Amino acid sequence: MTDTYLHHEDHIESSDLLKDIVIGMSDGLTVPFALAAGLSGAVDSTSVIVIAGIAEIAAGSIAMGLGGFLAGQTEQDHYNSELKKEYWEVDNIPQKEQEEVRIFFRELGLSSEVQEKAVIELTRDKDVWVKFMMKHELGLDEPDPKRAGKSAFNIGISYALGGLVPLSPYFFIADSIEALKVSVGITLVCLFIFGYFKSKLTGVNPLTGGLKVMLIGASAAAAAFIIAKLIEG
Amino acid sequence: MTDTYLHHEDHIESSDLLKDIVIGMSDGLTVPFALAAGLSGAVDSTSVIVIAGIAEIAAGSIAMGLGGFLAGQTEQDHYNSELKKEYWEVDNIPQKEQEEVRIFFRELGLSSEVQEKAVIELTRDKDVWVKFMMKHELGLDEPDPKRAGKSAFNIGISYALGGLVPLSPYFFIADSIEALKVSVGITLVCLFIFGYFKSKLTGVNPLTGGLKVMLIGASAAAAAFIIAKLIEG
Predict the structure, then answer these.
(1) 0.80 exceeded by the pTM?
(2) Interface contact B177, partner A, CB < 8 A
(3) CB-based contact (8 Å) between B220 and chain A?
(4) Does this complex have an ipTM over 0.95?
(5) For residue A70, what are the CA distances in angstroms to A83, A148, A149, B35, B158?
(6) Main location per UniProt (chains A, B) (predicted)?
(7) Per-residue pLDDT reduced to its tens digit, B76-123
(8) Which residue of B has its CA nearest to A101?
(9) Given A42, A59, A228, which is nearest B223 (Cβ)?
């Protein structure tokens, strides 16, 4: 392993962490923001809004964190069970599996001659063959066992931190509509900033991306406010 | 297009719809459930819980629906911009792009002779070549432009319907702790059922999957209940 390779790996790790933080925060900003806005339209007491907001943040970050962790485990189980199945197939129905390799090369537009040679060479080593089937027949990459858990934890924590932003004015301002005005201001700015960075990380135009994330948050908050107002009558 | 092909497409469409419904519902059951449970620990009036719950459902379904729709658009934009870039590269730096095709075949363990022939055949047709680079260098499949919007809509609606399950007892029972008991009962049963089907659709052991989804919901609700109780003092 060369230094360049190590450096590259470092780069991936830190950008993964950044991605988790940005995803968690921009989601965390949206739903607690909309919930607080909705309740501001219906209840005067900010203490109820603070309790509801914190209950939502706890619920949301656990659902995202634990959900992500268990999804990661499931992905690992799924990979292992498919791997076992492919080894069995390669051992027991090799003709059928060879035919599937041939179809892959045929679909790339290669000639019968090259298809034939590629199939013979690729199916010589059983491990290479199975790995090929996993990736190109089933579209499965070997999951990183630590990655899913860490990622879920990071997203969960970031969701909680993001959720505290729209809620913070309600800690200090007694009137719910006054608190809502401050909450709207700071949250829309934060949503734009996080949408901007989220887009940069995924290689999308950051200005459009920032506006989209801001639009989602604003629509959700407006809808929650109007609906809560209507129910409260 | 043969009848068999059409039949196959039908099958995919209906299972996609089913998947959207199950994903939306099992998520919709979780967060509104936990929010209602949290508030039940802190407020006596079920009317506040109903308002908060409906505000959350509106916020969550818009965030999921609109968020999913915009993410689908972004994916399409991203695909188109990468496609343009690959055509440019194939036109302007063909040697480098041919080398990348060669590396793909080398990593499959093919001999130099077969690598060479495969590269020549594959890079003969520019469209085939670009499509290959998109899929195997960048890991991008052409997104279905209608699919993302429809899927987001289905998930959003299912989230809202799922969210009404844990909330429904609060419509009819005046005491919040009494309503919570009924809510816990029906929601855990529904979470198990939806987790069971979610796992079946994704090819995972349905019993374990059902228990996992139920566990996530129960943990989120318990945490929200305890935290709200602590804040309320």
Answers:
(1) no
(2) no
(3) yes
(4) no
(5) 20, 9, 8, 21, 22
(6) membrane
(7) 888 888 899 999 999 999 999 989 889 988 988 888 888 888 899 989
(8) B108
(9) A59
